[in-house]
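Hi support team,

I've been running sequence recovery on a batch of backbones for a student project. Most finish fine, but this one hangs at about 90% for roughly twenty minutes before it completes. I'm not sure whether the input is malformed or the queue is just slow. I've pasted the structure tokens below so you can try to reproduce it. Let me know if you need the job ID as well.

Thanks,
M.K.
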């Protein structure tokens, strides 16, 4: 009795004369190779995204763990600082209700309480 049509493997040719693919490669092996290429590309994309994110976070502001505001003072890394004081070489310029503005090497930055 012939096998059910739905259980038969698909007879599809993956050969393309314009491609560099080996025509003797089985369809399952071809799918495995494609999956490995996809995983390598995805790993590379994630690595590049992590590097871009790391580049944005570098700087003096990333070393500061902004914890709160008390009047005109701020709490950074469990220490209290006032306007005009320096932390990690950065000067505190302005204190807001949930943020502060600092300056480091002539560049201003804003750190928001989260």
């Amino acid at each position: 009795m012939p096998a059910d049509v739905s259980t038969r493997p698909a007879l599809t040719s993956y050969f393309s004369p314009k491609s560099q693919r080996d025509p003797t490669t089985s369809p399952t092996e071809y799918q495995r190779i494609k999956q490995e290429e996809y995983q390598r590309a995805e790993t590379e994309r994630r690595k590049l995204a992590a590097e871009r994110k790391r580049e944005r976070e570098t700087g003096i502001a990333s070393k500061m763990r902004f914890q709160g505001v008390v009047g005109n003072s701020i709490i950074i890394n469990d220490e209290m600082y006032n306007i005009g004081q320096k932390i990690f070489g950065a000067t505190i310029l302005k204190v807001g209700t949930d943020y502060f503005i600092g300056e480091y090497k002539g560049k201003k930055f804003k750190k928001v309480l989260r």
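--
Follow-up from support: It reproduced on our side and the slowdown came from queue contention, not your input. The chain has two domains: 23-58, 60-112. No action needed from you.
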